[in-house]
Amino acid sequence: MNATLPQTTTPEIPDPPQRLLTYFEEGGHTLGSWLLTTDHKRIGILYLYSILVFFTIAAFAAAMMRMELLTPTGDLVTSETYNKLFTMHGTMMVWFFLIPSIPSVLGNFLVPLMLGARDLAFPRLNLLSWYLFNFGGLLALYAIAFGGVDTGWTFYEPYSSAFSNGHVVTMVAGVFVAGFSSILTGLNFIVSIHKLRAPGLTWFKLPLFLWSTYATSIILVLATPVLAMTLILVAAERIWGIGIFDPRLGGDPVLFQHLFWFYSHPAVYIMILPGMGVVSEVITCFARKPIFGYHFVAFSSIAIALVGFFVWGHHMFVSSQSVYAGLVFSLLSYLVAVPSAIKVFNWTMTLHRGRIHFDTPMLYALAFIGLFVIGGLTGLFLAALGFDVQAHGTYFVVAHFHYIMVGGMVTAFLGGLHYWWPKITGRLYPENLGRLSALIIFGGFNVTFFPQFVVGYLGMPRRYHAYAPEFQIFNVFSTAGTSILGIGYLLPLIYLIWSLKHGKKAPANPWKATGLEWQTPSPPPKQNFAQTPIVTQRPYQYSPEIEEEFIHG
Amino acid sequence: MADAHPTLAEQFDDLPQQRNAALLGMWTFLATEVLFFGGLFLSYTIYRHAYYEAFEEAGRHVKILYGSINTALLLTSSLTMSLAIHSAQVGQQRLLVRFLRLTIFLGICFLVVKGMEYKSDIDEHFVPGARFEHGLPAQAQIFWFLYWIMTGVHSLHLLVGIGLLVVITWMARKGRFSEHYNNPVVISGLYWHFVDVIWVWLYALFYLVNRN
After folding, report:
1. How confident is the model over A474-514, as pLDDT tens digits?
2. Which chain B residue is nearest to residue A180, measuring alpha carbons?
3. To the nearest 10°, the Cα dihedral for B49, B51, B54, B55?
4. Looking at chain A from residue 235 to 254, which residues have their Cβ under 8 Å from any Cβ of chain B?
5. Helix (H, G, I), strand (E, B) or coil at A320
6. Looking at the predicted structure, is the pLDDT value of residue A431 above 50?
7. Looking at the predicted complex, does its ipTM rise above 0.90?
8. What is the 3-state secondary structure (H, E, C) of A232-261?
């Protein structure tokens, strides 16, 4: 137990007669102990394995695309294969990596710990959601392996139902099943945060990670079912050759776009809000300062989740949507920038006059802020009606959302993984390698995606395997950046696995961080806490005046 | 938790906490369900607005007798479900089992009547596609597509509800519930009522509004 920062008092416990078994040890190391576990910590790790597999597959597709785009002519793959590659990349990354990344891995591990609870409210449901997730993933992989899908991750009608030759139904079924996994996870988090808070842990003492997880869960629960129904309609139309989006009957394909984006735009916030939660935790700890404007950061998460439900139309500025609808959606899209900017300003103010430690998680958090600002501001460009007509469907859009999803979410995920790695595994990772890979990723990312803003602005359309020769230089940069990025991602994979056996043993609180999860041994016992903690103070009681030595791996 | 109740799961401190969590969980799930059906109700509204006459003509062919019988059956089943919950809360084991069985029976009756209606719909070629010939405008097929998918998804929900109640009945017969612990009965009841409410809307939209 950490005694240096007693922001949270645990009742005095007489020295336990023996060390508590960690969650690894209790229950044993058999395969059955993992596959039938209801322990939220183990389920988090199961998710980590799963998303790693899906990430690797999706990253492979990205690498193939970047190689094809090295030259202006389509010489490596045919246009048909290229269509299948970007569909594979999009579906896998969105539904099988990004959406579950922070919520299902770190969220599963941390939510009960941060609540001072023994588990989530519905542990068996939690395990079920992991199985659903994998079943959905296997369906998607089946669709990819036996013919592929060429619709893009958006499954636009009427192409997806009437014309595409791929395994659309199987792919759609996979996403449908994975969607239910998302819903169950979100439901579990909502109920746990409402009902399982430790004594004294009021809403405004919750860590900001929980606020952002709560906001994410609202979106998971309320948006995902709309996608599920929309996918049923696509599958039905494809199977029976008739449906409500069919223009021959007077059906409207644009209605599909409305329904799809009613889910998929809020889903974009599923792919950033959890990252914001991680950054809020990391920034305060490594600046040794309480978060600036706690209430604003907390409520801005909720505001992003709620306003995010009313901006979907900005994907359809050029899809025959009425001009007036476009005006409203444009305005509302600008509105989402307000809570996002509040967060950025508050993080910046938290850094101000802090005692900043540039450890690996902090490097990722700082990278997140910079990349998120670029991704967010270019989002405002695209929310402007006039500019969007020029940039719609170009690489400008591709660069914009990769700055949010990769520059934002993946960066935050890696930052969070490093930050909580000692807690999860009981081992420290090698700090210098961690810093190095964070820098490589930051550099590689910008070399990959910044040129895409330029080339998109100049008019290069997305989703083509060949392009005009004058765009080549930008694409060469992009492809070169991808290989740097690839090394950046490979390094943590290697040294994190290495650290499992050879890393230094982690103490309970290597970062001298506040927060309940640091008040229990690393790795925690199965019950999380020897005794239910009682919370008496607000979170983030850091003080920049106190010099503290971190324990580095 | 030395004095823990046998039905108290380890993550909860006491029975009220467990009960509140179960209730909130089911309400959250029902919020998901509302949005799940929401896309269909939205589509219905948009197309009804766009193709008002086609929808009205198509709607005259929906068989109101079946629909009305089913409405009566399902509303009654909600009553028996409520009585089952009440029996559980006052600890009346035998009545609980009896009302649960009655609810299941009414649910099955609904599905049988729905099946008969589907059969006559098929016999009269009210299935969208090549054999849909009634001199109706093309958009009438959208009405019928929505009819099939919305009542179909609803019936599927009812089937899940029946399966749920079969399990609950089995648990009740084993004496798992008492006046202190009956969460599974209560939350299954919530789900059952939800499925009932969805039907009330379907009855109004497909059977009633086109008969003015």
Report:
1. 999 999 999 999 999 999 999 999 999 999 999 999 999 99
2. B32
3. -30
4. 236, 240-244, 248-252
5. coil
6. yes
7. yes
8. HHHHHHHHHCCCCCCHHHCCCHHHHHHHHH
